[in-house]
Amino acid sequence: MRQLLHNGTLLPANTFRLELPNRGLAFGDGFFETLVFAENNLRLAADHFARMQQAAAALYLALPEALATHHALEATLTGLVKANQLPAARLRLQLWRTGGGRYTPTGDAAEWLATAEAFVPDDTHIAKADFALETHAIHSPLSFCKGPQAWLYVRAAHERQRRGLDEIILCDAAGHVAEAGAAAIFWLKDGVLFTPALESGCVAGVQRAQVLRAARAASIRCHEGLFKQEVLLAADAVFTANVASVRAVRAIGNTSFAQPSLAFL
């Protein structure tokens, strides 16, 4: 029977119920993290924790004790993986403000829920991508984290499915490239690595940070900025990256790309 963690208590998933009022349900008053446990390790735990700290501060939330350091986060979620007897797991950690009230909250304490499912990596190439036509990335005080602007990615995923694409690329309202539907986007041109700046409205992905660290450690010049679509389309090679996988993009619309050389990762 699958187990989950609610406020630190291990419970059977099929009997769990959320009590009302719930500010996460009513107002989206919280955020989430998607994490991967593999090879007996919680990937990029320190990066996830740093983003959680930033998100909690932006939403005026206090992190619960079981999640209050990156070591505590790792220990807590490793316990959930072991309880579910999973060799590798995809984890979702959701935090939301406790209490009732309307828009004005009554406190800064957070409830939390962690779930685990089997993790199957997918590093296959993306054969067919294109730019979103119906949804724009939006830069805001919370666009760096996951949750508050999730509706953008739901709309983009709907469009991707309807158009028969393998991936969709979001741009901001001014036409600057922001990110893929559920991953950061990178491209290589003349040996330089490019990726959109956070000002484009993209999520501050933990794998995005890791790719940039690895590239700089390999003495690859990196350029973060605001780039129009034509800059991306002029790339030599393109790839996406999130905590689950790094995937080559073979074509955006009618423009094809070479296989990226990612030995530095």
Note the topology.
Elements: E1 3-6, E2 9-12, H1 23-27, E3 30-38, E4 41-42, H2 45-58, H3 70-83, E5 89-97, E6 110-118, E7 129-131, H4 150-163, E8 167-171, E9 177-180, E10 184-189, E11 192-196, H5 206-217, E12 222-225, H6 229-233, E13 237-241, E14 246-249, E15 251-252, E16 255-256
Parallel strand pairs: 7-8, 11-12
Antiparallel strand pairs: 1-2, 1-6, 3-4, 3-5, 5-6, 8-9, 10-11, 10-13, 13-14, 15-16
Q: What can you see in these coordinates?
A:
This protein is an alpha+beta fold. The protein folds into 2 domains: 3-118, 2-Layer Sandwich (D-amino Acid Aminotransferase, Chain A, domain 1); 129-256, D-amino Acid Aminotransferase, Chain A, domain 2 (Alpha-Beta Barrel), CATH 3.20.10. Helix content is 24%, strand content 29%. The strands form 4 sheets. It has a 6-stranded antiparallel beta sheet with strand order 2-1-6-5-3-4. It has a 5-stranded mixed beta sheet with strand order 12-11-10-13-14, covered by helices on one side. Strand 1 (3-6) and strand 2 (9-12) form a beta hairpin. Helix 2 crosses helix 3. It comes from Hymenobacter arizonensis (Siccationidurans arizonensis). Belongs to the class-IV pyridoxal-phosphate-dependent aminotransferase family. Keywords: Aminotransferase, Transferase. It catalyses: L-isoleucine + 2-oxoglutarate = (S)-3-methyl-2-oxopentanoate + L-glutamate; L-valine + 2-oxoglutarate = 3-methyl-2-oxobutanoate + L-glutamate; L-leucine + 2-oxoglutarate = 4-methyl-2-oxopentanoate + L-glutamate.
